[in-house]
Structure formats: C-alpha cells, structure tokens
Design goal:
The chain has 429 residues and is mainly alpha-helical. It is built from 21 helices and no strands.
Length: 429
Amino acid sequence: MATEMIGAIGLASLLVLMVIRVPVALAMLLVGVGGFSQIIGWGAAVSMLKSVPVEVLTNYSFSAVPMFILMGVLAAHSGMAGKLFESARVICGGWKGGLAIAAIGSCGIFSAISGSSLATASTMTRVALPEMERHGYHRGLATGALAAGGTLGIMIPPSIALLIYAILTEQSVGDMFMAGLIPGLLGLVLYALTVSVVMRLKPELAVAGESTAWRAKLASLGGLVPFLAVFLIMILGIYFGVFTPTEGASVGAFATLVYALVKGMRGNGLWAAVQETLALSSVVFFMLVGAETLGYFISVSRISFSISDLLYGLELSPFVVVLCILVMYFLLGMFMDSIAMLVITVPVVFPIIQSLGIDPVWFGIVTVLTVELGLITPPVGMNVFVIKAMAPHVGLGEIFRGVAPFIASDLVRLVLLLAFPVLTTLFLI
C-alpha cells in the first residue's frame, strides 16, 4: 500500500476516534504509533514511542507552558481578577453597556498574563457575571460578552496557542508574541464597539451603570497596575532582548507569585494553585506528545506533500489556498478544542504553507484567530460551555445568541488581517 494511502487512512481513523470520544491526545498517539509502524516497522515505532515523550518533556522551550499557566492561576486565586474588574467597572461607570465593556476589557487585560482563553473565561465569569445580572443586564448579552472576551486569551501575548504554534513550526516565539499584539488589541476594541452597537440597536438589553467621578476613575487605575506591570516586564524584556520568551515566562510567574504572597496567599492557597497548574500542564503536554508522534507519522507518509502537489495541479493562488485552510479551521473549530486543533493540523498544513512561500508568522496569526472563532461558535464552543458550567441557570441557546454579534466582529477582524498583513508584522523584532 502506498505511504500516502496509509497517511489518509490514519487521518480518517483519527477523526473516527475523536467522534467516538477517545481523548484527543490518546487518539493522536495511537494513530501516530500505528501508522508509523505500518510504514517503517514496529521496532522503529516502539523506539519512537520511547524517545518522543523524552524529547517533548525535556524541550526547554516548552517549559514556558506551565509558567504561563501558573501566572493565570495565581492571578485568579490571589484576588487580582476581582480588583481588575472593579477598576474597569469604575472606569466605565455611567456608560451604556459599561459593565459589559468593563468585562471585555478585564478579559483582555487578564488574558495578557493568563495565556489561556478557557482560564480567562472561567475566572472573569465568576467575577463579572453576578455583577452584570444584579444591574439588570440581559443574560445573553452578559454571557456573550464574557465568552467573546475570553477568546482574547488565545491572541494577546503571552499566548499558549502562539507559543505552541511557534515551537511546532520552528518560528521565533518572540516574533509570534509581537505579531499577536495588534490583532489582540484590535479584538478588544472591536468587541467594545460591538457592545456599543448592540446597545444602540437594542437599548433594553442593559442599563447605564452608576456614574463615577473622574477622581474615582483615576483612583481605580491602581487595580490595573499589577497586570500592566507583569505584562510590560515580560513584553518589553522580550522585545529589547533582556531575556528570551521562555525566561520571560519565568519572570512573569515570579512577579505574580510575589504579588500573591504580598496579598496574603499562603499554604493551602499556594498548594491549590500548584495542583491546578500541574493538572492543566499535564493535559497540554500529553497533547504535545501525541502531536509529536502524529507529526512523525505524517512526515513519513508524505501526505502533506501529496496535498501540496494536488494544490499545485489545481493552480490555485496562495491566497485562495490560505482561505481554504482557514475555512477548514473554522469548521473544525465547531467541534474541537483550539489547542488540539493546532497540534493535529499544523504538521499537515505547514509544509503546504512553506511550499507556497507564505509568511509563516502572518499565517500563524490568522490561523490562531480562526481557531479562536471556534471557541464561541456552535455546536461545541469551548468558552460557551465553560460559561455554561459556571452559570448553569443560563441556557446554551441564550449564550450562543448573545455571542453572535461578537462572531461577526471577529470575522471583520479576520478580513482586516487578511487585507492588511502589516497589522501582524509592525512590531516584529
């Protein structure tokens, strides 16, 4: 049997395993080992199975993953998130839909040190949703704003998704972080504008918040200082070459730990944060081991090169090829977790991107943005289900209807990035 056919059967088997609810990491591992053995042999497959976990777990670049997760967990457990939302609420006081805008702004700032969309969505829902409901916000608008705001965690650096893409494609992590800065901030602005437009069209969905004096607004800026300090230390340190992105993750985690200790976080609180970090990191690393194994199988099957040859035969322009890939990501995002989607598909599509001469950094940003859309699109929007778990009294349909305007906002942002690639390359080191 031709190696390309074995590769196609392997990818089809992967989809079947996921449909029958086999964990994604285990499915990738099974297909990778089984497919590799059919092409190279069982002896080589067993050797690969022994070496790949060691390669992944000892990869210095991957050590940034638990550090970014630890930052977000410490920020959530130490009360930083609550102070952040309170500050944003005071700043937006008196605005129509101000609490929703404050929630989105809080999500954007929190994600700047969290790196995880799911962590951002769950933390800010716990903090902001009760306040919005108390002020009479429509539940669809409130939960939709939080679900959309949570997706900012996948783009605003430091981002675990951008980190994983950079390592899988051997790109500079610093370049990916800098490239994600403008698209992430653009998303924050467009989401706030979306709330304003919704308020103009349906003013009954929310009421104006309590008006606050300028003195109170200025005083509330203190709640933003810890986040901005950690964010600027990492980003400026990486940009000016003071430390590498991996070292920056450790610096950020240490700064967040110092804040948590100053605020009185001790024994049980620290242990709970460490346990949560270890649990989340284990899930990510298991997926990375599976993805690396699957990548070896895809490489020896040469299926990605066969797809490249097929596309060349169709004589499609590189832009059309990118659009086809993004449509695939959008459809997959309706059913799969964002990190799992990246680790499964990047080994397949990246050789195609390289062969077409497309900028890998720009492609990574538009890919991650499209994957981000999958976090809030039905039927399986992960952020929506996280918010549903945090607020079981709100119906799934209600959340999906509330998030629909923000999906339109993300499509506008994607069009802007496709039309103006300079938005991703302006701050490259």
